[in-house]
Amino acid sequence: MRPSSLAANEVQSSVKFEGNFLSRLWGEGGQRPGEGAAADGDATLGGLRVLATFRRTYLFSLAVFGLAAVLVFSQACTRASASSAINKGSDHVALKGYDVVAYFTEDKPVKGSKEFQHEWMGAKWQFSSAANRDLFAANPSKYAPQYGGYCAFGVSEGHKAPVDPSVWKIVDGKLYLNYDAGVGQEWRKDIPGRIAKADKNWPKVMKE
């Protein structure tokens, strides 16, 4: 239930409470303020003061509760939006600006440039040439690294991890990157097994 719904329910409960309070205070069909003796009037006024004080305290608590609920909800949305299926920096540049097409065409990691940039999946992909940029734009899934460019070994273990663009391997026409040389070596000990585990984990890991 969203914070606005919770607040509405609380206000309805407050109205019902006040109605029941007044019914008990005056009685079913009893005297209203000013209709009875002075003592009764004083007692009634005292009761109303208690009710007013209670209401102010209750509404203040309700406001605090509503604000807290909104803050929690906003933080949850922020966390959700912060998660990304693409390994990108705070500037939204994918893979530290490396040209993913160059792994296939030049058989090595090559740094890209802002001059040759293409936006895909909420990230800015940079390339070393217009030709590479155009190849990627025509078929992103062919050149984009697996698991959004996160560490292939890490995903096989069930979590995201950054990568070193110089630690890479193309397997069956797909690009895989790893955290560092040591992790890459460990991943190479059982590439089919690691890929199978990562493929299974990725749908869940990508949302984290």
Number of helical segments with 4 or more residues: 8
Structural class: alpha+beta
Estimated radius of gyration: 32 Å
Strand order of the biggest β-sheet:
1-2
Helix content: 40-55%
Element order: H for helix, E for strand:
HHHEEHHHEEHH
List how many beta strands DSSP finds: 4
How much of the sequence lies in strands comes to 5-15%
Overall 3D shape: elongated
Give the rounded overall mean pLDDT.
Answer: 79
Total domain count: 2
* Distance separating the two termini: 22 Å
- Poorly predicted segments: 2-8, 64-82
Sheet with most strands: 2 strands, antiparallel
Question: What does the model show?
Answer:
The chain is α+β, with helices and mostly antiparallel strands and 208 residues long. It folds into 2 domains: 3-82; 95-205, no CATH class. 55% of the residues lie in helices and 12% in strands. The chain contains 8 helices and 4 strands. The protein has helices at residues 3-26, 38-82, 102-105, 130-138, 140-143, 152-156, 181-188, 191-205, and strands spanning 113-120, 123-127, 164-171, 174-178. It has a two-stranded antiparallel sheet. Helix 1 (3-26) packs antiparallel against helix 2 (38-82). It starts with a helix and ends with a helix. Residues 2-8 and 64-82 have low confidence and may be disordered.
Name its key features.
two-stranded antiparallel ribbon, 4 strands, alpha+beta, elongated, 12% strand, 55% helix
